[in-house]
Amino acid sequence: xxxxxxxxxxxxxxxxxxxxxxxxxxxxxxxxxxxxxxxxxxxxxxxxxxxxxxxxxxxxxxxxxxxxxxxxxxxxxxxxxxxxxxxxxxxxxxxxxxxxxxxxxxxxxxxxxxxx
Amino acid sequence: xxxxxxxxxxxxxxxxxxxxxxxxxxxxxxxxxxxxxxxxxxxxxxxxxxxxxxxxxxxxxxxxxxxxxxxxxxxxxxxxxxxxxxxxxxxxxxxxxxxxxxxxxxxxxxxxxxx
Lengths: 116, 115
Known about the structure:
The complex is a heterodimer. Chain A is mostly beta strands. Chain A has strands at residues 3-7, 10-13, 19-26, 32-38, 44-52, 55-58, 64-70, 73-78, 87-94, 106-107, 111-115. The relative contact order of chain A is 0.33.
């Protein structure tokens, strides 16, 4: 079976500090990977998605970046955090290699980031 | 652009009763998928149920059923026999084949089940 991991679970960082959040998926190959951010009490906003190693698509302009150094690893980074970067960050995966609209996205446990 | 709307920010439901969560969507793409997710206070997003735009019958998964009205562009979630553990945020989401199969989420509905 497939599992998705995220770490750290919680993070408190000062403004201007760097960020690195990691997401890994087990039990599948060539997944589509996604980073979402959820502000308090709000819905999910798609930040980045990747259909393969080194292939990153950005959905919104921001000071965050994403990388996919390995097939089942997705990293969210920032060189200098802003207060507005606070939120709940969710990684998700979906079976790759198909364009069908039926495939479900499965989410990781999330990272709660607080920027002070 | 595609849009998905959940008009109920929050609602109470009595334990063991049924509750309907509204979701409307807007797209001109004939091929799309509709999803419902549950987000308890722990934060994880739990997949509940899926409905495809070409599906002839409404989807059901245990106590969850989806009232899919294609002409009205609505995909309401019905939870039968509510349990205390059903208290959570519920999100409706849509994926369009034409939009690279990315998910667009509604704003969510918070459900609180009363004993």
